[in-house]
Amino acid sequence: MQAISQIKTVSRFRPYNGDMTRGRKPSQEAPLFGQRLVHFRQKAGMTQYELAEALDISRDLVGHYERRSQNPNLEFVIKVAELFDVSVDELLGFKTAPEKTGPPPRVKRLTTRLAELPKAKQGVVLEMLESYLDKAS
Questions:
Q1: Which of 16, 59, 87, 102 has an alpha carbon within 20 to 30 A of 122's alpha carbon?
Q2: Where are the beta strands (DSSP E) in 16-103?
Q3: Ranges of each domain in the chain
């Protein structure tokens, strides 16, 4: 008897399932800036709430910029570009940054540190590295 009353309670007070999205679907496509903002936010692995906190604004304002703002405030654009470490041009969609080539940052830092060592110590480190790489291959 108790199980039946629980089923009625669940079906009566939870008519929607978890797969349904909140709110209504947008009637028009988001402006380019909004699309770029969503792209960089998601690329950084941030939620709207986290972005709002980082920019010291409300989550509703983030949603406004992502879905409706045709002409974002210049101060906001600059703050977002600095936060995501991209140029304003890239954020606004005028140009895309070239793919970074070369060694990963950690390797670059280590090679810089290696170059600062005296020649004798550089030789020791390089011998150890070559020996390890030869064994690993």
A1: 102
A2: none
A3: 26-100, 105-136
